[in-house]
Design a protein that fits this description.
The complex is a heterodimer of chains A (290) and B (295). Chain A has 13 helices and 2 strands, in the order ααββααααααααααα. In chain A, helix 3 (55-61) packs across helix 13. Chain A has 290 residues and is an all-alpha fold. The two termini of chain A are 39 Å apart. Chain A has a two-stranded antiparallel sheet with strand order 1-2. Helix content of chain A is 71%, strand content 1%. Chain B folds into 2 domains: 8-76, no CATH class; 81-293, MetI-like fold (Orthogonal Bundle), CATH 1.10.3720.10. Chain B is built from 14 helices and no strands. In chain B, helix 1 (14-51) crosses helix 13 (260-278) and helix 4 (125-137) crosses helix 7. In chain B, 39% of the residues are buried. The chains are: A mainly alpha (290), B mainly alpha (295).
Chain lengths: 290, 295
């Protein structure tokens, strides 16, 4: 008790640098984005921007390029997030089997985690080159049809999903591997004594225990893929025919290439609220059974 | 799953059938493990091999495909020499220094914050925790433009601090450390306090020395946050003297020609340096990350 009064300043001093930096570099820019979305561009340099309320939003909602981009993003998210989560769980189950040499395989599987997305995109970008790439080389060799990959509006999204999943699946598998290794042996043994087979074990024991991790991976993966930017910029610049023009890339085009910060901020604000809604929904769906 | 190739007669001896079924299952398991390993290694093996090839042979064995695509049959160091002559070494040093500075300062800032959340009760604690939680939910990519404008207004364009300061406070690492310190033995802290040590002293000489797993994983996360960064340096420090690894790679793509083998040489260096750093610490990394996620 004696200590209580003496230490009162300490926690604040310990927290101050981190909190101040977070507020300056994260919170204030977020508020600035929101504010920007409610103002019109100043007519001339130095003039004050004019408050226009939700006019920017109305303008965006009537913009066909935005809707096309939103549709692409929705389609992309609905495929990539469940796919990466399920494959990551599968990979984790495979990588935690009790067989000889599994540690060696696990180390290989986790290699992509350390490779930056920039490098992943550069190397895969060369591999999916329709004219000289390794993938079409292999397809031709085994007698299959060569594919246009990134140059086709129909295939571009799937190709990007394939490329980012090379890193994404092992990355999220890392979380599942750790969680699987932490499952108490007693729980598994009890189920085996009850006569459960492997499949029942997975459904009744493993998945329920992993539920919070599955939720975390799904939420975090959704955010990462929603703000996906580098692969699009390096590989397709939104093309062909805007087929890979995800909303995040569209905000970059407007903000940085066309200098239209107003509509860029509007889209970022919309994205932020959509992310919040998605997180809320996923929480609701996956938590209800607890 | 009954393997087709096994003759019916063997079924009479139950034990033998069981044995071969089990063998088949084991073989199937290893086939699966190897196939996945090949999928993971494919781009890395081709990338390494092509980066050791002369420019005109970069695609030679990729299309039409031959097994030579994965072995540097025309071995040359041409591409590596070329990128180092263009200053790749400088960008490696830059990125290392940025990474180490960020780990030291950022590590200190985030762990002290985590320690305060885990070990003190004070007015406003939940409000401050909410700030951390909020910044965790707002993806940094969504707020790049105002952050960039702020840096520009401060005259920080083409400075080291523009590359370092915004990456120091990391809400995920604050969570992670606060989680870690909650399980820290109270007796050790109490004993040092009774001996009259200040809190800063307790933090440095009692808490940190036994926090190795935490320090390793936050070190890796913060180091990779610098090593992987591409878009932010492109915006705030475009000058040659500040060039970081991820930007240096793309220099091989030039207006009239792309040097494919050099592009791959840079990429392979950028990929394998963190792999070498990460591999020995895999277990620490996994445990700390999951400790933070469990809430």
């Amino acid at each position: 008790m004696k200590n209580r009064k003496k230490i009162s300043a300490v926690p604040y001093l310990f927290l101050a640098p981190a909190i101040i930096l977070l507020v300056i570099f994260n919170l204030i820019p977020a508020i600035a984005t929101f504010k920007q979305s409610l103002f019109a561009e100043a007519a001339r340099r130095g003039a004050d921007p004019i408050f226009v309320g939700f006019e920017n939003f109305l303008r965006i909602f009537q913009d066909p390029v935005f809707w096309k981009s939103a549709k692409v993003t929705l389609f992309f998210s609905l495929i990539v997030n469940p796919l990466q989560t399920v494959f990551a769980l599968g990979l984790a189950l495979i990588a935690t089997q009790k067989v000889k040499g599994i540690g060696f395989f696990r180390s290989i599987y986790l290699l992509p985690v350390a490779v930056s997305i920039n490098v992943v995109v550069v190397v895969w970008g060369l591999m999916v080159d329709p004219n000289a790439g390794l993938l079409n080389g292999i397809l031709k060799q085994i007698g299959l049809m060569e594919q246009p990959f990134l140059t086709s509006p129909q295939q571009v999204l799937n190709t990007i999903i394939m490329i980012i999943s090379w890193k994404g699946v092992p990355y999220w598998a890392l979380f599942f591997i750790a969680a699987l290794q932490a499952i108490p042996v007693s729980a598994v043994e009890a189920a085996i004594i009850d006569g459960a087979n492997k499949w029942q074990l997975l459904i009744r024991i493993t998945i329920p225990i992993l539920r919070p991790i599955i939720l975390f991976v799904l939420v975090a993966d959704t955010i990462v893929n929603f703000t996906l930017f580098v692969p699009i910029q390096l590989l397709t610049q939104g093309g062909p025919q805007l087929a890979s023009n995800l909303v995040m890339y569209e905000t970059y085009r407007r903000g940085f290439i066309y200098g239209d910060l107003g509509s860029s901020s509007v889209m970022l604000t919309i994205m932020f609220f959509v992310i919040l809604i998605v997180i809320g929904l996923q929480n609701l769906v996956l938590r209800e059974k607890n | 799953m009954i393997p087709i190739g096994i003759p019916e007669t063997k079924n009479k001896k139950g034990r033998r059938n069981l044995f071969s079924l089990k063998t088949m299952l084991t073989i199937f398991r290893y086939v699966l493990l190897i196939v996945i390993a090949i999928l993971v290694l494919l781009p890395l093996l081709w990338g390494i091999s092509a980066s050791f090839s002369p420019l005109e042979k970069t695609y030679e064995y990729a299309y039409p495909f031959s097994w030579k695509a994965f072995f540097p049959v025309d071995f040359t160091l041409e591409a590596y020499q070329a990128i180092f002559e263009r200053g790749f070494g400088r960008s490696l040093i830059n990125t290392f220094m940025l990474g180490i500075t960020t780990v030291m300062i950022g590590g200190f800032i985030c762990t002290t914050a985590g320690f305060a959340f885990a070990r003190f009760d004070f007015p406003g604690k939940s409000l401050l925790f909410f700030v951390v939680l909020l910044t965790f939910t707002i993806p940094g990519d969504l707020t790049v433009i105002p952050r960039f404008i702020m840096i520009k207004d401060w005259g920080w364009i083409n400075t080291w601090q523009a590359l370092i300061v915004p990456l120091l406070a990391n809400s995920f690492i604050i969570f992670m450390s606060s989680q870690f310190f909650k399980d820290f033995p109270q007796e050790l802290v109490d004993a040092a306090r009774v001996d009259g040590a200040t809190w800063l002293r307790v933090y440095f000489s009692v808490v940190l020395p036994v926090s190795k797993p935490l320090l390793i994983s936050l070190g890796l996360i913060l180091f990779l946050s610098q090593w992987d960064s591409y878009f932010w340096p492109l915006l705030v420090a475009p000058d040659q003297q500040f060039r970081v690894v991820q930007l240096a790679i793309t220099e091989s793509v030039q207006e009239y020609q792309t040097f494919w083998n050099e592009l791959l040489a840079g990429s392979m260096l950028a990929a394998f340096i963190p792999i070498v750093l990460l591999l020995p610490f895999q277990r620490y990394f996994i445990n700390a990350v999951v400790g933070a996620v469990k809430e």
